Backbone:
């Protein structure tokens, strides 16, 4: 027996394959890239190094004095040994 109505299929319509989304992060800090030899290195961090300075009059800021007492030998900037250098010149309260 044939029906006058056409047979309807109950299968769902074909679906597209799931799309893969690749997310590339936006990176503003490129400090890890080595500069070319002819380019100067610019940084917001202070350029401090142990260079022989050992006393408060030789410092330019409290941050610099703190760096020196933490990283450099033979400094004379924390007379009361409380961890705060140059209290009268730079790091006083």
Residues:
């Amino acid at each position: 027996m044939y029906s006058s109505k056409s047979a309807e299929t109950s299968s769902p319509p074909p679906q597209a394959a799931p799309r893969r989304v690749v997310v590339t992060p936006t990176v503003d800090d490129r400090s890890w890239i080595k500069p070319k030899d002819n380019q100067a290195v610019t940084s917001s961090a202070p350029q401090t190094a142990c260079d022989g300075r050992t006393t408060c009059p030789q410092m330019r800021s409290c941050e610099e004095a703190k760096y020196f007492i933490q990283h450099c030998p033979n400094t004379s900037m924390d007379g009361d040994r409380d961890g705060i250098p140059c209290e009268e010149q730079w790091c006083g309260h």
